[in-house]
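Input sequence (251 aa), recorded before submission:
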Amino acid sequence: MITFIISVVLLLLGYFIYSKIIEKILGVAPAKATPATTMADGVDYVPMKTWRIFLIQFLNIAGVGPIVGAIMGANMRHVKIITILAILFVVNTKTIAQTTDRQLVDKIVQINDIPYVGNFGDSLYWKIVAEGLDIVPNLIELIDDTTTTKATIPNWGGYYCVGDIAFSMINDIIFQIPILNFIQTKTDYVGEKIYFEFVQYDFQNRVHLKNELSDWFVANNDGLEWVNNKKEFLANHYNPPYIKGHYVFNK
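Predicted structure, token format:
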């Protein structure tokens, strides 16, 4: 009976206290559209009514919980239960880390200045770049985001969109990405002009670039090596002192 009462108390504490902590960390936004809506494809992402989602979650808990819980309590004893709890903790920690990365790249729209000759650019820009390879998948997902920012485009005028800045960040994290292969051009010149001509011609070009870059990153991620910067001026701008290097693909 004492064990039961303790369990009920812990459950209530988890509901009223721990859930609030997780809510703050993950940044719950009830009004924000979920992937089931933004990425709906009728197969893996399908919008569902609230009562149906609740029913599925309830069946997952009510159907499996009493069976698995009883077996765990009877056979696995304390050590194995602690091991399972540790695994759950690691999974939750990874989820929180991924959510934090997502929250960070969502701030790209707030960037007002992009690094260029004689200009370090916005500190937020380099804060995201400093995350390295871990944040690249999140940046790739934003390449087709055409939300306009306040960061002006030097030489050509106009404003960068979120996708442009995300693409620039990727190139500051990973050098020598074979962009010309992705945009299907025969020119030997690699620069913003070629990039902008490609993505501004047709929105589907952005989607194409996003998919090609995603496939390339998945295929070559293990072959990327860290290289220390030997000079401050790289590409077309200066890097701040705390950006010590970048990744290159070791063929």
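Checked by second reader. Residues 33-108 form one domain.
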